[in-house]
Each structure stands twice: as structure tokens, then as C-alpha cells.
Design a protein that fits this description.
alpha/beta; globular; five-stranded parallel sheet; 48% helix; P-loop_NTPase; Rossmann fold; 196 residues
């Protein structure tokens, strides 16, 4: 009697969470260069389609956002062509009920995919955050550049942390170049997934 082969684990899902302007996208681009067979899905690829249809204050906006995420996540769990690729997601999810629910979707996707989930919270001091927030590169990508709004986020909200998750890591990028931050994240990934 033969036993069914156990499916190989898929390449991981990396979730970079942090306040707007902390440097997630820039760091993720450098990380992409270090990882073979990786793709970057930055948060505006998921936000902008919803923003094109509904304003974030309108009814149905969060439902639309979730539907877009679920379409992407469905491909990651059911499409074999995705299994040999590491996916790097950038995000800003706060530690409120909505943010925690969205983060739970990422975790559930990795579990169904049978892939390592590697959540990393990036942070920096407020002065550095504000300087990075108003860089010309952010305006080119239609990203948030409102200093007052992000200051309010920092004062009133906290970034969601996957506290207790075995692969969770926090990285202070205040005094790191994007290359240095990406290298540190890469070393963390290799520790969890030596096959990378």
C-alpha cells in the first residue's frame, strides 16, 4: 500500500507593516533584489482599485477592499503557478478591530497555502518618518504625504503587531539605509526558510 506524498511547503508570505512613510516600499524593493523568485505587492496595488470606485468614507468601501484582497489571496492558495514565488506585501494596518481582521486574513492565507508567514513591523522615530513622508518619490506614486494626518496616526493609533507569532520581528529603520534594512530582513527570512 502506497502513502500519498506530502505536498512541499510553498514559498513564504512576507508582511511588512508600518506607518505611512516609514520606508516599507523602498526597503521591499531592495529585499526583492536579494530573494530569488519573489514578487512585491505593495499596498497601493490593493488600495487604488477600491479608491477608484468608492471614497474610503463611503458605505461599501471596506467590503470592496476585502473582495480585492480575497481575489489575490485566492490565487496564492489555489494557483500552483504562485507556489514557487515568495510574496512581499507592504501594508499599514493599525491595531484596531479592522486592522487586526485584515492581518488575520494574511495569516489565514499563509496557513491555507502551507507557507511560512513572516510578519515584520518596521518603525522609525517621528522626525525621520515625517522627512520620508514628504519625499518626492511618494507624490509620484500618489501615496499619502499628509504630515498632520500621519502625526495623528502616530499619536492615536498603534501598528498591528503579530505578538506571539514565532516568525514575528520588529525593525527600527530610523538609522538604517534601505539596503541595510533589507539585508537584516533577508537574514531573518533565511533563518526561518533556509531554502531561500
Amino acid at each position: 500500500m502506497t502513502t500519498a506524498a506530502v505536498p512541499e511547503p510553498r514559498r513564504p508570505i512576507v508582511h511588512l507593516n508600518g506607518f505611512p512613510g516609514v520606508g516599507k516600499l523602498t526597503i521591499a524593493r531592495f529585499l526583492l533584489k536579494l530573494l530569488p523568485f519573489a514578487k512585491l505587492v505593495h499596498n497601493h496595488l490593493l488600495i487604488n482599485p477600491a479608491d477608484a470606485i468608492l471614497h474610503r468614507t463611503q458605505p461599501g468601501y471596506q467590503t470592496l477592499r476585502r473582495a480585492i484582497r480575497q481575489t489575490i489571496f485566492s490565487a496564492l492558495t489555489s494557483e500552483p503557478a504562485t507556489f514557487d514565488t515568495t510574496y512581499i506585501f507592504t501594508d499599514f494596518q493599525s491595531d484596531d478591530e479592522l486592522g487586526a481582521a485584515v492581518c488575520a486574513e494574511y495569516l489565514a492565507t499563509a496557513e491555507v497555502r502551507r507557507a511560512a508567514f513572516i510578519p515584520i513591523m518596521l518603525f522609525c522615530d517621528e522626525k525621520t518618518n515625517m522627512q520620508r513622508l514628504v519625499s518626492s518619490d511618494r507624490e509620484l506614486h500618489s501615496k499619502l504625504t499628509d504630515v498632520e494626518l500621519v502625526s495623528k496616526f502616530r499619536l492615536e493609533e498603534d501598528v498591528h503587531r503579530f505578538t506571539g507569532h514565532p516568525n514575528y520581528s520588529e525593525l527600527d529603520v530610523s538609522n538604517l539605509t534601505p539596503e541595510e534594512a533589507a539585508r537584516q530582513i533577508y537574514e531573518h527570512l533565511k533563518h526561518i526558510c533556509p531554502e531561500l
